């Protein structure tokens, strides 16, 4: 029997400026929410600007693609007790197929009794998407751990003076260097 020895996975949501939405930028592994937030800062905010970070356990994030919604007609059906309380759910979606490091963008909140109900309400309302959403994520408010506004100086400002270049900046340079090598310069071990 093989045991999984990795810490749980946490989704990371980053907000670059106060006037921008949170965006899912990747994941980290951590034993708890506080360490996940610190790991997220170390991995995703070393150089680019950041105003706020959220982390949520991957297991708490309900995800569906447009294809899954289309091919699973009763995806929203579930047995919920009538007295199940409503809570706030954060709605994220991806409305473009443009290649990006961002998985989904925060588009709003909705009150619901479950993640499935929140997604159904969000889609039915029509207020969270302009044309089509290729992917939807729903995150309960109770699952999110966030940085505070007073954390900005200590967590994010030290990275402001560092030059940051997106990985696409380097795409051409790697291939250009390889083409400059002569066959006799390459050694095989």
Describe the 3D structure.
This protein folds into two domains: 1-58 and 144-176, Phenylacetic acid degradation B (Ubiquitin-like (UB roll)), CATH 3.10.20; 61-143, no CATH class. It has 189 residues and is α+β, with helices and mostly antiparallel strands. It is built from five helices and eight strands; from the N terminus they run ββαββαββαββαα. The chain is globular. Helices cover 23% and strands 25% of the residues. The longest helix has 12 residues, at 33-44. It starts with 8 loop residues before the first strand and ends in a 9-residue tail after the last helix.
Distance N to C terminus = 38 Å
- Largest beta-sheet characterization: 4 strands, antiparallel
Residue runs with pLDDT of under 50 for 5 or more positions: 174-178
Spatial order of strands in the largest sheet: 2-1-3-8
How many strand segments? 8
Oligomer: single chain
Mean pLDDT comes to 85
Number of self-contained structural domains: 2
CATH topology of the largest domain: Ubiquitin-like (UB roll)
Strand content bin: 25-35%
- How many helices? The count is 5
Which CATH class of the largest domain applies here?
Answer: Alpha Beta
């Amino acid at each position: 029997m093989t045991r999984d020895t990795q810490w749980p996975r946490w989704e990371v949501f980053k907000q670059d400026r106060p006037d921008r939405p949170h965006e899912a930028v990747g994941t980290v592994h951590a034993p708890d929410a506080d360490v996940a937030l610190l790991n997220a800062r170390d991995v995703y905010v070393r150089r680019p600007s950041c105003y706020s970070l959220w982390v949520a356990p991957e297991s708490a994030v309900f995800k569906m693609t447009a294809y899954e919604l289309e091919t699973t007609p009763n995806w929203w059906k579930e047995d919920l007790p009538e007295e199940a309380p409503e809570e706030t759910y954060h709605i994220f979606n991806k409305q473009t197929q443009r290649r990006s490091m961002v998985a989904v963008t925060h588009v709003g909140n909705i009150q619901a009794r479950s993640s499935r109900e929140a997604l159904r309400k969000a889609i039915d309302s029509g207020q969270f998407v302009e044309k089509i959403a290729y992917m939807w994520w729903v995150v309960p408010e109770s699952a999110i751990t966030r940085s505070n506004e007073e954390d900005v100086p200590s967590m994010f400002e030290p990275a402001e003076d560092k030059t940051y270049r997106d990985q696409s900046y380097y795409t051409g340079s790697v291939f250009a260097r390889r083409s400059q090598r002569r066959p006799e310069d390459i050694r095989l071990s």
